[in-house]
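for ur thesis appendix - Meiotic nuclear division protein 1 homolog. copy paste whatever u need, i formatted it the way the template wanted (i think)
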Amino acid sequence: MPPRGMSAEDKRKTVLHLFHESAKPWLLKDVEKAAAKRGVVFQAVKDVVQSLIDDSLVHVDKIGTSNWYWSFPGEASAKLRHEVGSMDAQIAALEAECAQLDERLEKAAAEFPQTEERQMAEVMLQSATDENDRLKKELESFASGDAAVLETIRGGKENCHEAVNRWTDNTFLLKSWVEKKCGDREQAAKFFKEHGVNFNNFDYLE
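the 3d part is after this line
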């Protein structure tokens, strides 16, 4: 008694086995009849064959007015070996790329390691940057006030102006200190840029 309720994969295996048993070309109508005898629903055979063609497990050639379907036993294993080889090559390429990235990270860490001096410089720079930002915002708020308010805070504004330039001066001194410590102006510029200070547009208030 033929099996009932075959899964899609079982149908594929059954039809493919037909081709491999005979190792000869088939007409679709003959495949449908033979597969039906082995439990594959007659109406489903065409779709099963097409799925095998899509996966390159079965081939079809038009000879005259007829389509002939064929598959040889060694093809499935050869295709599988090819896919495994392709995946191995992709894995090797990814591993090589990861190794290159690790090497770049190690090189970057060696060029500018996270030393106590760098940590100190980061703290000093952040303090100077925060103070500069605070004072500049305060100056902006002063500039937007009315005449009476400006007259009242004129002295405070001048003090803030001096404080901004003092912290700007400290930042330039810190820049010189960092350049001496790391011995590379480009690395020093990169360090400051990472912390939001771009000396291309960083200057004293006038």
